[in-house]
Amino acid sequence: MTTDSTALGKHEVDMTVYAKVASHETLLQDGVVRMNSGFTEKIGMNKTPGVTVRIDDDGRLQLDISVIVRYGTDLRSLGPAIQEAVVGSIRRMSDQPVGQVNVFIADIEFPKGESKSTGRAAAHEDTA
């Protein structure tokens, strides 16, 4: 939780808010199918699947984002696109400094009817 104080009192931002912002911005990126639900999400330990947020020793946010992407997505450009979108959104909403945004491509999803080993449409042979 991040806290700021003013003459009128304090205001706090729960880490879940930053996680939800990161998830929202990530899902807007072309090629992202969904967030990756890991073990901690399945047992209810993480409220925002695919995103963990913590504050480092310097007081900066550290985000880990895990996604499942569509086959054919340019993975070289997806990571930086997610990082820029997340950092930009958090900076527009908060004065909280952002350290690292780590993006993990956890899996790839193929269109139905395509072979997972080749990525090509499965061949159907007619036998007489």
**Could you tell me the strand content as a percent range?**
25-35%
Fourth-tier CATH superfamily name: Cation efflux protein, cytoplasmic domain
Q: How many DSSP-defined strands?
A: 6
Mean pLDDT across the residues is 86
Q: At the third CATH level, what is the topology name?
A: Alpha-Beta Plaits
- Class from secondary-structure proportions: alpha+beta
Structural domain count? 1
Distance between the termini: 68 Å
Give the overall shape, derived from the CA principal axes.
elongated
Radius of gyration: 19 Å
Main CATH class: Alpha Beta
How many H/I helical runs? 3
CATH architecture, by name, is 2-Layer Sandwich
SSE topology string = EEHEHEEHE
Could you name the ranges where pLDDT drops below 50 across 5 or more consecutive residues? Answer: 122-128
The percent of residues in helical segments reads: 25-40%
The oligomeric state of the chains shown is single chain
Largest sheet: 4 strands, mixed
Descriptive overview:
- With 128 residues, the chain is of the alpha+beta class.
- It has one domain: Alpha-Beta Plaits.
- The chain is built from three helices and six strands.
- The strands form two sheets. Strands 3, 4, 5 and 6 form a four-stranded mixed β-sheet that branches. The protein has a two-stranded antiparallel sheet with strand order 1-2.
- It is elongated and about 60 Å long.
Short characterization:
The protein is of the alpha+beta class and 128 residues long. The protein has helices at residues 15-27, 39-42, 75-93; strands at 2-6, 9-13, 32-35, 51-55, 61-70, 98-109.
